[in-house]
Write a structure and sequence with these properties.
Layout: H1 2-17, E1 19-20, E2 33-37, E3 41-49, E4 52-59, E5 63-72, E6 77-82, E7 89-90, E8 94-101, E9 109-118, E10 124-132
Length: 134
């Protein structure tokens, strides 16, 4: 029950806390991580400290997400969170917050896998993004 509550809070927070970010950041600057899937590109950013590090994702097109997996392969950590409201639209160019993690350190190589459908064509996709903590 606690996990279900956490998942619900995360997706409601992501939906409400999304903010329009029109800044252009060079993905090779060490701040962003970019990745591609069969139809959708996502950009990742992050900020914080080892006590509370927040990840943000920005879809390249409007999408509906089924789930997101955050993983840190070097430490055999994986966090798979299903979307409790898969009809929610995550808009292109809009940044959405992923809940904070503790113990995040500079140089760690994270991987984020997004699964869902595009809004325009209802095409299924799975996209993976690599992100190195600056």
């Amino acid at each position: 029950m606690k996990i279900l509550y956490l998942v619900l809070v995360v997706f409601i927070s992501v939906y409400i806390a999304g903010c329009n970010n029109s800044d252009v950041v060079d993905p090779n600057s060490g701040i962003n991580g970019t990745g591609t899937g069969n139809t959708v590109n996502f950009t990742m950013q992050g900020s914080g400290t080892s006590q509370s590090y927040d990840f943000q994702f920005t879809p390249g097109v409007d999408v509906k997400l089924n789930y997101l997996i955050a993983s840190l392969p070097a430490q055999q950590f994986s966090d798979s969170v299903p979307n409790t409201n898969p009809s929610t639209v995550f808009s292109s160019g809009q940044s959405y917050s992923w809940y904070p993690y503790t113990g995040v350190q500079t140089g760690q190589q994270w991987s984020f896998t997004f699964n869902g459908t595009t809004v325009s064509s209802n095409q299924s996709f799975t996209s993976t993004v690599s992100f190195t903590i600056p």
